[in-house]
Design brief:
Elements: H1 18-24, E1 34-41, E2 47-50, E3 53-60, H2 61-73, E4 78-84, H3 101-112, E5 117-122, E6 135-137, E7 140-142, H4 143-159, E8 164-167, H5 174-184, E9 193-198, H6 205-211, H7 231-243, E10 247-251, H8 257-266, E11 271-275, H9 277-288, H10 294-308, E12 312-315, H11 318-326
Parallel strand pairs: 1-3, 1-4, 1-12, 4-5, 5-8, 9-10, 10-11, 11-12
Antiparallel strand pairs: 2-3, 6-7
Helix pairs in contact: 2-3, 4-5, 5-7, 8-10, 9-10
Bound molecules: ligand PBG.
Ligand PBG binds near residues 123, 207 and 208.
């Protein structure tokens, strides 16, 4: 590739002022890129801040519609729901109960805010007494037994109004099982966003506080991916597409920008990146200490995720970003 050379070329010419910088800017963050995570919990009249995630709240069902309205009014197209049930059990049966926390939240949101796109996180760790992402057998998550329960969970989500389901448990064959279950139940039109390359990451720490989903023993390394692996991430992504994933996800985002970029170059489906809780909390904490400029670091982080190839970003910063965009600060 010939680029030319100095003094004929002076790249600074195209950086002279904001107008020319706008014209040559290659990557943009818009409202269209954003998905906002919402935590719904049992109880009534509750809006409580997550201690390790300033600015992020857990809402009881009676409060969740207002929270979603705020997101909709900011111009954000979608939310993804996480549930904290009142009762946990060995298998996480709240996930397919008609009175489950997500089912209640879906009905509430769909009746009061019908014009926002609602994605449900599909997993078991917040719902099981042991905190693992499926059914245990000899202290191990049993893959195929878990698939059976995943089918019940997604059908129940779809029946209660979910627009899209997002399985995050990293079970082998989960996308195939879910696609078949949805199709059989008459939900052929409901897409699947697969957490395809989900790594066993320490960046999920604050989320596990928020969702009360830390495993009671052991860790998730027998199902989530080894952070050291890149080709395996592509294998997971390609397998999920083969099984019927409409959108694939890389998670976390920031320490995995190379994976996002690699996935984007190798697939034809949209790529989502999850800017996870720990990534959020690090920036919030340093911002509060006055050690970094929180807004600018946030913007630069999201830009890097977009530039790496993400078509959409799940981020706890979505409302902050939307406010900045709407106020013309960026
Ligand atoms: C699993 C799930 C997790 C996150 C999203 N879905 C936690 C985990 O795997 O332990 C983490 C999200 C975040 O850290 O923001 N249901």
């Amino acid at each position: 590739m010939i680029v030319g050379k100095f003094p004929n070329l002076r790249p600074r010419r195209l950086r002279k002022n904001e107008n020319i910088r706008r014209l040559v800017r290659e990557t943009r963050i818009t409202l269209d890129d954003l998905i906002y995570p919402i935590f719904v919990r049992y109880g009534e009249n509750i809006v409580e801040e997550v201690p390790s995630m300033p600015g992020v709240y857990r809402y009881s069902v009676d409060k969740v519609a207002d929270a979603v309205k705020e997101v909709r009014d900011l111009g954000i197209p979608a939310v993804i729901l996480f549930g904290i049930p009142e009762h946990k059990d060995e298998v996480g049966s709240d996930t397919w109960s008609e009175e489950g926390i997500i089912q209640q939240a879906l009905r509430k949101i769909k009746s009061e805010v019908p014009d926002i796109y609602v994605i449900t996180d599909v997993c078991f760790c917040e719902y099981t007494s042991h905190g693992h992402c499926g059914v245990l057998h000899d202290h191990e998550v049993d893959n195929d037994l878990t698939l059976e329960n995943l089918k019940k969970q997604v059908v129940s989500h779809a029946e209660n109004g979910a627009d899209m389901v997002a399985p995050s448990g990293m079970m082998d064959g989960m996308v195939k099982a879910i696609r078949e279950a949805l199709d059989e139940a008459g939900f052929k039109h409901i897409p699947i966003m697969a957490y395809s390359a989900k790594f066993a990451s320490a960046f999920y720490g604050p989320f596990r506080d928020a969702a009360e989903s830390a495993p009671a023993f052991g860790d998730r390394r027998s199902y989530q991916m080894d952070p050291a692996n890149s080709r395996e991430a592509l294998k997971e992504v390609l397998m999920d597409i083969e099984e019927g994933a409409d959108i694939v996800m890389v998670k976390p985002a920031l320490a995995y920008l190379d994976i996002i970029s690699k996935v984007k170059e190798n697939v034809l489906v949209p790529v989502c990146a999850y800017n996870v809780s720990g990534e959020y909390s690090l920036i919030k904490a340093a911002g509060r200490l006055g050690w970094v400029d929180e807004k600018r670091v946030m913007w630069e982080t999201l830009l890097s995720i977009k530039r790496a190839g993400a078509d959409m970003i799940i981020t706890y910063f979505a409302k902050d970003v939307a406010n900045m965009i709407n106020k013309g600060e960026v």
